[in-house]
Structures are given as C-alpha cells and as structure tokens.
Design goal:
Layout lengths: L1 E2 L2 E2 L4 E3 L7 H10 L4 E2 L16 E5 L2 E4 L8 H8 L8 E5 L4 H11 L5 E5 L10 H5 L1 H13 L5 E4 L7 H13 L4 E4 L3 E3 L2 E2 L4 E2 L6 E4 L4 H14 L4 E4 L5 H9 L4 E4 L16 H13 L2
Parallel strand pairs: 3-16, 4-7, 7-8, 8-9, 9-10, 10-15, 15-16
Antiparallel strand pairs: 1-2, 5-6, 6-14, 11-14, 12-13
Helix pairs in contact: 1-9, 3-5, 5-6, 8-9
The chain binds 3,4-dihydroxybenzoic acid.
The site of 3,4-dihydroxybenzoic acid (DHB) has 12 residues, from loops.
C-alpha cells in the first residue's frame, strides 16, 4: 500500500515511544511492520523525568510520564547512520516552538523517510501538548516543517474529546499546511495519586494514558476526523488484537500503530510476555496480510 510517497508492505507501524530507540526499531522491523516510527527527538539531549515513569495502576490503563528522554538530534543523527532499515523510517520530532520543528526536520532529513510532528504530548513542561491546542503556533510549526523538507510530513494530534470545533479548526490547519497524513490519538492527560504518601505518583505530576482503556476514545476521534477530511489517517490507541485494527479501519483509518497494547498481548499477566515478534505476527495473521 501507499502512504504519501512511502511504499508499505502492510498497514502496521509501531507507535512512537514504545520500544522506539534504534536497536528496538530493528525488532519491530524484523517482526514485520510496514514502517517504523522513532521515539520523539528534540534539540537538546534529555534524561527524561525522575521515576517512576511508567505505571499500570489499573488493568488496561498504562500511564507514562517519560519526559522526552532522548539523546538530542546530533547524537541521534550519528546513531541512525549506523543502522539500515528495509522499511520506511518515520522520525518523530518535538519542538518547543515553530523554529525548532523546521530546524529538526532539516537536520534529520538524511536519516528519515518521513516525519511525524509530535504536537500532542499531554505532560510536556513547555511546548508539545499546548501546540496542538494553539492554532497560531500549530500553523507556524507545521508550515515551517513543511517548508524544510521534501519528505512526507505528518502530524500527531492529541485527543480533542468532545471539542469538535477544535478538531475541525485543527484539521483545516493540517490541510492548509499540506501535511501528508494525520496520526491520532496521542496519550490522554492523566494522573495517579497515592493516598498513603499524599501526593501524585509522577514527579512531573501528570502523565499520558495509553493502552486498551483509551481505544474507544481513539475510535471516536478517528470517526469524526474521517468525516472532516480525505487525508490518510494513521490510528493509534489501545490496539491489542487484529479486531481493534479492523475497528479503526471500519471508521476510516488507513494504517494502524501498535503501542502499549504490546503489554497485553499473550500471557503477560502470567509473566510470559511473548514480545514484539509474536504480537505483530498475530495481528498480521488476523488481518490476513
Ligand atoms: C512522551 C511524549 C508523548 O507524546 C507521549 O504521549 C508520552 C510520553 C514523553 O517522552 O514524555
């Protein structure tokens, strides 16, 4: 299948942030996905937040507050030159303003077949989350990125919940700035709280919720997005089986991303977690592709 100018052997990718540093991207590739998506890369190296950074307070609810751990674009560029991929590499980037998005796209073009602009981290300290909710900066960021590369550029949107006007406004911006596709949804802003120690669990207080419990929120947004645009939609949110992927395709998505649903595949609950390869193979088999 085609996604913009990319040739994909099947409609599956990993979701950014889940096993998405280069050595693990090789595992997704070997497992058989049609394209791989990197962890979000920024300008400066960052160790991420102080732990805990990933918890499952309730079955099906995965909460993370990673804080964009990444080596920064310079190191990432050198590191990626040591790898070669047979499937398209989509580089996820995050910027704090419109200039950073343009800059990063230009710098990372040599190791990227396409880009996914992360404007939707629900717990970033500055930038990220807010950009997906701020039409003016969003428009400038997408425009700068678009003008800085010939490669396909996509945008990863936050969950707009019941705010259909915001979704409509954002989709108009996405079309106007000639994005090649929309990826949705990013994690939902969330928090856990310890009654015993009387404070939020995450050092950053907030995190993002993913996993099976967000699947139905994602379906609703993909459905609404499909009513509003003909752009390709790459859907993500709580996929644990081929049935979830079929649901996404049923409401108008073209491609699906596998993320923290990975944790729920197989016999994870008995500590017999079977890994990326079995997960991807089972979904491809269920889709008959
Ligand atoms: C991070 C970024 C995200 O967009 C997200 O949904 C979750 C975590 C991060 O690295 O902090």
């Amino acid at each position: 299948m085609k996604l913009a100018n990319l040739e994909l052997k099947n409609p599956l990718m990993n979701a950014s942030g889940v096993c998405s540093f280069p050595p693990l991207l090789k595992r997704w590739e070997e497992a058989g996905v049609g394209a791989v998506v990197t962890k979000s890369i920024g300008i400066e190296p960052s160790p991420g937040n102080r732990g805990p950074v990933l918890i499952e307070p309730y079955p099906g609810a995965v909460l993370n507050s990673m804080g964009f751990p990444n080596p920064g674009y310079e190191y990432f560029l050198e590191e990626m030159k040591e790898y070669s991929f047979d499937v398209p590499v989509i580089t996820s980037i995050y910027g704090r303003d419109e200039y950073e998005f343009g800059f990063l796209v230009k710098k990372l073009e040599p190791v990227s077949d396409a880009f996914e602009l992360n404007v939707s981290c629900p717990h970033a300290k500055k930038g990220g989350y807010q950009i997906g909710f701020e039409p003016k900066i969003l428009r400038k960021s997408l425009k700068n990125a678009r003008e800085s590369t010939e490669n396909p550029v996509s945008v990863k949107l936050p969950y707009y919940s019941a705010d259909e006007r915001k979704l409509k406004e954002v989709i108009e911006i996405v079309e106007e700035t000639e994005m090649d596709w929309i990826t949705e949804i990013n994690t939902l802003r969330a928090m856990d709280y310890s009654v015993e120690i009387e404070r939020p669990i995450f050092s950053n207080k907030f995190g993002g919720q993913s996993g099976p419990t967000i699947h139905f929120c994602a379906l609703a947004q993909v459905y609404k997005t499909r009513e509003l645009t003909d752009l390709p939609i790459v859907a993500s949110g709580g996929i644990v089986s081929a049935y979830n992927v079929k649901r996404f395709f049923g409401v108008g998505a073209n491609v699906a991303q596998l993320g923290s649903g990975l944790l729920y595949y197989g016999e994870y609950r008995d500590n017999k977690h079977t890994g990326i390869e079995d997960f991807v193979k089972a979904i491809l088999e269920g889709l008959k592709c």
